[in-house]
Amino acid sequence: MTEELKTLIEVAKRVTPSPAEREEQRRSFAYGNTAFENSLITREMIDRQADKLAADER
Questions:
Q1: What does pTM read for this prediction?
Q2: SS3 letters across the chain
Q3: How many CA atoms lie within 13 A of 32 on its CB side?
Q4: Is the per-residue pLDDT at 57 higher than 90?
Q5: How confident is the model at residue 29 (pLDDT cuts 50, 70, 90)?
Q6: Are 34 and 46 in contact (CB under 8 A)?
């Protein structure tokens, strides 16, 4: 592993994602795991359900 890569990894360890970035990552994770099992799942479906869940929490 190069020194440059080691430095980038150390910097990345200290990054705190914003709430919007965390939500984007959560949706990406949900899509990746569900689409793997069911190819009919779309990102739009994930977004609709995530938006619905968020509205229900309010």
A1: 0.73
A2: CCHHHHHHHHHHHCCCCCHHHHHHHHHHHHHHHHHHHCCCCCHHHHHHHHHHHHHHHC
A3: 6
A4: no
A5: very high
A6: yes
